[in-house]
Amino acid sequence: MRLGFLTHVQGENAYRNAQELFVTADELGFDVGWVAQHHEPLQGGGLSSPWTFLAYAAARTRRIRLSTAITIVPLEHPIRLAEDVSVVDTLSGGRVEIGVGSGSGPAEYKVFGKDFEQKRELTTSGLHILRAALNGEEVGQGFKIQPPPVSDFTDRIWQGIFSEAGARYTAQEGSNLLLNRATYGYEEDTDVIQRVWADAFLETWAHERTPRIGLSRFVFPAKDRKEALRQIEDGLNNATAGFVQRGTFPAGQSTEEYLRRFHAFYGHPDEIIEALQKEKVLPVATDLITQFNPGIPDFDAAVNALRLIATEIAPALGWKAQ
């Protein structure tokens, strides 16, 4: 299992602090650092240009791999995106991976002049061009991107999905599977729903290489549950209000119920370890991707949480720093 850390780049001094968290994660032995692309803050993040951010992170880190969860493919020109990815891959010495998806906000699509109702088709067509460009193929008469990628991208492309059909399609395409921190619009627990999707992905996979499943989870350790909740509750409440307004969450529920719907793991490391050992998707995951979102803890608390994840939680789940 690889260990990852995902930041949505939010809060006070968000860009500077997120870069420092990449440096910290690199020093702690995290295998992959992930960022989420959002053009609109209401969608839950503050980073619009992830590849610019990752280029700077590449210069400040030594070994951690660099990826997105996700880049919104329909809102990018796929050839320009491939060029950006390849530049960062070259600068980082081949440490780049890329997670792609369709995003979630119709307002973003409107601003970029794209049809939100066509987001799946746009994602599919864009991904095909992106994949071809990163494989060094011609994507226009006599045109190949420069610089050429450092190495083969076949096993470095991830796709975010939100359904069993999406999981099967991802397997057919040969992309790695990215599972969101939680499912929304379901009453059952996230891992119950997502285990069905993960099993469908593995059942459909027919390629020679080993399939990869990235499992994103809201994990925030602290000295106890009270302190953990104190650090994450403001971000949690703001995110919950937005979900209620959009009709994704029911109104008037307890904090504990909203934490369940976000599939949150928080509190003392021992409590988190015990809960994650019961997680139904983790046994088939190849990558555990931890994130604090929708919590927005202060910087020192975030650094401490990364340390606890790397030194106590992940090793108890079988991870070893390389």
From TrEMBL:
It comes from the Bacteria. It holds the Pfam family Bac_luciferase. One of its GO terms (cellular component) is cytosol. Residues 9-261 form the Luciferase-like domain. Gene3D superfamilies: Luciferase-like domain. InterPro entries: Bact_Lucif_Oxidored, Luciferase-like_dom, Luciferase-like_sf. One of its GO terms (molecular function) is oxidoreductase activity, acting on paired donors, with incorporation or reduction of molecular oxygen. This is Luciferase.
